[in-house]
Amino acid sequence: MIDSYKKFWNNILNFSGTSNRPDYWWPAIINWILGGIIIAILQGIMGHPLTQIYTWHDLGIASIRNIVVLIVWLATLSVSVRRLHDTDRSGWWVFIQIIPLIGGIWFFILMILPTKYNRWQNK
């Protein structure tokens, strides 16, 4: 679990090679839990939702939040592409999510498929 999370952050800009199922799912679960906890704490301190900006302090927190979200999104995109490579598919399959409902379901199925010998291994 910890090793998968380290790989997630160490390969933030690596869009080649492969990532197995644990290397995709552990960071997804950990980021979801950490995100919920951090948002709950910040909203408790601020006394209102993070999306509502009343002061300069709120704007600063919202800006930092947006930067963190962008970094996590980039790392998630790269691990998604590597996971698709692990199932012997092109990273461009990540765009299947654009299709409402069906695309998200199809992408989820692609993420749970087992590893398949592929052209991206050993890269």
From TrEMBL:
UniProt keyword annotation of Secreted present: no
Name the residues that span the membrane: 24-47, 59-80, 92-113
Which InterPro entries is this protein grouped with? DUF805
User: What does UniProt give as the signal peptide span?
Assistant: none
* UniProt keywords, alphabetically: Membrane, Transmembrane, Transmembrane helix
By what name is this protein known?
Integral membrane protein
Species name: Paucilactobacillus hokkaidonensis
Q: What is the lineage of its organism?
A: Bacteria, Bacillati, Bacillota, Bacilli, Lactobacillales
